[in-house]
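Hi, here's the filled form for the chain we discussed.

Project: internal
Contact: R.S.
Residues: 463
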Amino acid sequence: MAIQSARIRLLRDVPPREEASYVLYLMQQAMRVPFNPALELAVEEANRLKLPLLVCFGLLDGANGFPEANARHYAFLLQGLADAAAALERRGIAFLVRRGTPAEVAIDLSGKAALLVLDRGYLAIQKRWYGEIANGTECRIVQVEGDVVVPVEAASTKHEYAARTLRPKLHRLWDDYLAPLTPRTVEHSAKGLTLKGGLDVSNPERLLATLTLDTVVGPVKRFRGGHTEALKRLKTFLTEAFAGYGAGRNKPEAGAASHMSPYLHFGQISPVEIALAIRGAKDGDRDDRSAYLEELIVRRELAMNHVFHTEGYDDYARAVPDWARKTLAAHADDARPTLYSEEELAEGRTHDHYWNVAMREMRETGYMHNQLRMYWGKKILEWSPSPEEAFARTLRLNNRYFLDGRDANSFTNVAWIFGLHDRPWQTRKIFGSVRYQSENSLRKFDAKAYERAVARLCEAETA
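And the returned structure, exactly as it came back:
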């Protein structure tokens, strides 16, 4: 199956270098081997040029580490890299992980490359890396979209107001992109390449111990990184929990979640692979499929649209719409009956018992059900001294504890709490006309059953 042309962008249009040792692929966003269009395009180019393929990865730590990433995130990432390394070796593809920024690693290795293939990423730091690479190397550069179903520019050329404005555009296009991706045969093995300065990723725990990181927030047992684990979870979800997903997805105690978000965040599974599996599932009905694809494609790609078109998506003044900031400012001096410090929030020491339970799940296991994430965020807005401080707190807590934090979805969902992709509602204190969520929303599910489930999960972390 050919890779759709809309996924491919030529960043430097020069002929491939004739005197070259390999084709180079910087694997940075799509950290997987299966269903990776950038990897398969790199294989095609290596075959055409009769060269081996070298895949590289830039691993940051210390002062140059990825912003807000900690030992929890790095443990999951390294597990994924170990899984990818084994899969690449089986295909005769070399894999080199080096300390340094992705730009530094790619630029250094590009000197012997016929051409360079890049992933696509939408965060500001990723755009900066790709800009540095484009300016720092002279070889041909091809960028391939593998992180969304419908490429962002193909879906829309503007910032979309809400899911309802993007949804019909995606529905018209997504069948063209929901296609299998056949692994290409590697014709020239990379086993003969001499590579220096690489890190051994075969033992993620040992490598993690050598990195300079924030270790206060440590790894979790609930999730293990890598495409192999992601696929195992997806298959279990489809056979054991998918039937009834449409009705059960908003009930945290129902066990209806697929838990794909950490794997999607780290690029360890393709959204196309998930969507095809959902469409082909034996269990579940039309409502289940529709509900899941709405979350996987429409809501997730609305988030990509937001960060792509928003300069300063992590800044309250630029990420939150004007109408919402005005109404929140008008009520900024409203009396707040309860105020908590960020430390009290992080430790789950509030008067709201079930909010504390949700915070415990987040803090100790790296995950929280979507139904509770919204309630969690609205309460931070209610319990903070100002909307600006509430935004900053919510984002910091989100990015610190969630495995899928620091993501386009994270930045978008936090801004949604403050009015993004929403409309004005009835005016009330503190919130103005921004949507409010009360404790009554907890009555929509079995909160006690959810608490018991969280207790079991947290006990497993310390077992």
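Let me know if anything looks off before we file it.
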